């Protein structure tokens, strides 16, 4: 990786993350892939907190240590290269806190951020989650704001607070989180663009329960859960941001959070490339290391191109956010390209490792399963592409 355009602090962050990944993530990656609820997961979360990995999610004014988004994505790439599922435990916590950080709601920031930071300095670090997706009509339609979307999670005023009813699915960290930012509709017949608000729910609230934990294809270290809200009452001060402003808030969230997701995909693409190259240098067939066969060189060159090109886009999107101009177009471009690169590189790595690539213990088939999810969450590849075109059309019409 060319690091000439990084500051010394960013280079230090990369080195720190690489060392952390080698020491704490690599040794447990395959174990948590097979057995996600292994005690190794809890130990990892504690080690990550102790090392400051959660503090890196938050800017300094919030008690964190994050310098800028570029530093954040450099860390995400390093950790995801070791195991993206393990990093998701951290990343999904960042996602869960983002509505609060971006809400411009000072009171909410004071109530819902410091206790999380304090917990990361103890032996009981807290995780967070964001719950937007719903089982009926609440997938891509909620991301692109389809006014026809049939929302089912609803909220109504009650006793000076709010009563939430409904269900969310596929929520990363859902069963592990101590705090969940939940989006719900005031009027399920109205357009999502006007009726959604965000609320903080904690698992100790009456009426909250975790339904099934889905049996995932990849990124298995981090659970994806169904969450059920059965007359969950939250006080007024648990509403985050403007009433009815939830969809707009979610839109801003994605202009920031798609870039770290792209960095996670980049980590997978890089890991696939590095594993394939290392193997090709030592595997001898046809009387020479397979890296000397032109057919293998063509594949490896394409893999290297994808990694460099993905990193270029990820860093460009992160730099835009770092100077206060987060761009949904750039973050969607980075996420789309990097996730396609991750899937392509994982497939190529399996091909280069041949039969060994197909076996669990070599860790390459895991990369393919892990990579596929990056084309689905935070908006599918199709929805990201629509949003890129929407931005381009808006630019052309001067909107
Ligand atoms: C493991 C996992 C973890 C997740 N974590 C979270 C989380 O932490 N929090 C959260 O809120 N959500 C989470 N999600 C949800 C994720 O964001 C959604 O799965 C995603 O947005 C797609 O929605 P869907 O699954 O309902 O698919 P659908 O929206 O039903 O899409 C199905 C297919 O149709 C295509 N499609 C949809 N609409 C259109 C259209 N208008 N034009 C053309 N094609 C279209 C899609 O691209 C896709 O190929 C997670 C999902 C998974 C699988």
Q: Mind explaining what this structure looks like?
A:
Helices cover 53% and strands 15% of the residues. It is built from 13 helices and 10 strands. The protein has helices spanning 8-25, 29-34, 39-51, 69-102, 106-112, 114-119, 140-144, 192-195, 246-282, 294-322, 328-353, 364-374, 381-396; strands spanning 127-131, 154-158, 161-172, 177-185, 196-201, 208-213, 224-235, 239-240, 284-285, 288-289. The strands form 3 sheets. It has a 4-stranded mixed beta sheet. Strands 2-3-7-6 form a 4-stranded antiparallel beta sheet, covered by helices on one side. It has a two-stranded antiparallel sheet with strand order 9-10. Helix 9 (246-282) packs antiparallel against helix 12 (364-374). The longest helix has 37 residues, at 246-282. The radius of gyration is 21 Å and the shape is globular. The model has no long low-confidence stretch (mean pLDDT 96). Flavin-adenine dinucleotide binds at residues 92, 129-133, 139-140, 143, 170-172, 216, 224, 373, 376-377, 379-380, 382-383.
Bound molecules: flavin-adenine dinucleotide
Q: Report low-confidence residues grouped into runs of 5 or more.
A: none
The ordered H/E elements are HHHHHHEHEEEHEEEEHEEHHHH
Percent of residues in β-strands: 15-25%
Q: Which radius of gyration do the C-alpha atoms yield?
A: 21 Å
Structural class category: alpha+beta
Percent range of helical residues: 40-55%
CATH homologous superfamily heading of the largest domain:
Butyryl-CoA Dehydrogenase, subunit A, domain 3
Quaternary state reads: single chain
């Amino acid at each position: 990786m060319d690091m000439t355009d990084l500051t010394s602090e960013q280079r230090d962050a990369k080195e720190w993350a690489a060392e952390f990944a080698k020491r704490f993530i690599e040794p447990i990656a395959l174990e948590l892939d097979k057995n996600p609820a292994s005690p190794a997961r809890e130990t990892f979360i504690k080690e990550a907190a102790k090392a400051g990995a959660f503090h890196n999610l938050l800017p300094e004014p919030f008690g964190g240590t994050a310098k800028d988004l570029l530093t954040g994505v450099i860390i995400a790439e390093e950790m995801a290269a070791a195991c993206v599922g393990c990093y998701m435990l951290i990343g999904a916590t960042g996602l869960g806190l983002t509505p609060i950080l971006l809400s411009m709601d000072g009171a909410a920031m004071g109530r819902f951020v410091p206790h999380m930071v304090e917990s990361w300095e103890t032996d009981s670090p807290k995780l967070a989650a964001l719950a937007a997706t719903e089982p009926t009509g609440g997938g891509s339609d909620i991301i692109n704001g389809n006014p026809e979307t049939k929302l089912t999670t609803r909220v109504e005023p009650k006793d000076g607070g709010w009563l939430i009813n409904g269900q969310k699915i596929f929520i990363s960290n859902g069963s592990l989180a101590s705090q969940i930012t939940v989006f719900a509709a005031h009027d399920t017949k109205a357009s999502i663009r006007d009726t959604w608000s965000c609320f903080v729910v904690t698992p100790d609230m009456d009426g909250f329960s975790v339904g099934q934990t889905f049996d995932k294809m990849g990124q298995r270290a981090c659970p994806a859960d169904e969450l059920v809200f059965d007359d969950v009452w939250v006080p007024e001060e648990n509403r985050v941001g403007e009433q009815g402003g939830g969809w707009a808030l979610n839109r801003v969230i994605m202009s920031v959070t798609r870039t770290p997701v792209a960095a996670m995909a980049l980590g997978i693409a890089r890991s696939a490339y590095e594993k394939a190259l290392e193997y090709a240098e030592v595997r001898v067939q046809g009387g020479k290391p397979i890296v000397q066969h032109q057919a293998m060189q063509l594949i490896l060159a394409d893999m290297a191109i994808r990694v460099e090109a993905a990193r270029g886009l990820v860093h460009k999107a992160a730099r835009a956010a770092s100077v206060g101009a987060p761009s949904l177009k750039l973050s969607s471009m980075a996420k789309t390209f990097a996730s396609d690169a991750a899937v392509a590189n994982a497939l190529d790595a399996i091909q280069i490792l041949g039969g060994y690539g197909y076996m669990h213990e070599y860790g390459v088939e895991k990369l393919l399963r892990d990579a596929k999810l990056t084309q689905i969450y935070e908006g599918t590849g199709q929805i990201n592409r629509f949003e890129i075109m929407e931005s381009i059309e808006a630019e052309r019409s001067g909107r």
